[in-house]
């Protein structure tokens, strides 16, 4: 395995792209196969980054599943009151990371047409915004590339903040949470963003026919970012006929990542919760996208009845 630490901007020391790459075995015959890649954006409320639990740990699982993997340390807001809004910078960082991966696709054995974005919590908000706004011209013009450069093959959104309107309503009914208040400032530069501002940075309000397939997981008992975020996102995906898969686990709270409690040592597999099963489901879901020939076609109900699968005697009784 090759691990690299890539500085994305000359003037930003803390924006880093970490790579976890499989090496080509020189003794194996045949051509070098380019592999699909997963680019991960950890969460942290746009205030800090959970690089260990939502970056490295998840990256190792994808690496073991045959992907080239990257984790992005993007711009976040410090708790200092003079620190500015960081959302646009974080979007720019993600765009630069995608461009960097594609520019080095030969060197890193990456199929540039098969790049999946994955995010958790605030990272899922970031990824969701890229998935729903990749076609907008601003980032493409700034980085001198086609907008298509930023279109992911698919996205993975873990307990994401995907609907700021629903999130704001939820927080108004709960005791004040300093972390979420600081996060709101980091994204909107105001403690009281307008409805228009809330919608503008909510992926579920920006879903369109251009949105790629989406995999989501959430815990029903998430007390920080309620599952209504993912449910509302799913509703918009349905309305726009976008393929998706959604897993709502009874428990897991916020930040479960590989299945542990937020901040808990991840080596204790005996303490992992049922929500850890999202990864196996996601791996199978992604396989059908990166290798469509593996997908088993569903038999629709109409096809079943047209093929004579119905019990005519039973139907006769009903009719």
Question: How would you describe the overall organization of this protein?
Answer:
- The chain contains eleven helices and eight strands.
- The protein has 319 residues and is of the alpha/beta class.
- Strands 1-2-4-3-5-6-7-8 form an eight-stranded mixed beta sheet, with helices on both faces.
- Helix 1 links the parallel strand 3 and strand 4.
- Helix 2 crosses helix 3.
What are the salient characteristics of this protein?
single chain, 319 residues, 8 strands, eight-stranded mixed β-sheet, alpha/beta
Compose a concise summary of this entry:
Helix content is 36%, strand content 18%.
Q: Alpha-carbon distance between the termini?
A: 65 Å
Overall geometry comes to globular
Q: Give the biggest sheet.
A: 8 strands, mixed
Class based on secondary structure composition and strand pairing: alpha/beta
Instruction: State the helicity in percent bands.
Output: 25-40%
The radius of gyration computed from the alpha-carbon positions, rounded to a whole number of angstroms, is 21 Å
Mean of the pLDDT scores? 91
Q: In order across it, which strands form the biggest sheet?
A: 1-2-4-3-5-6-7-8
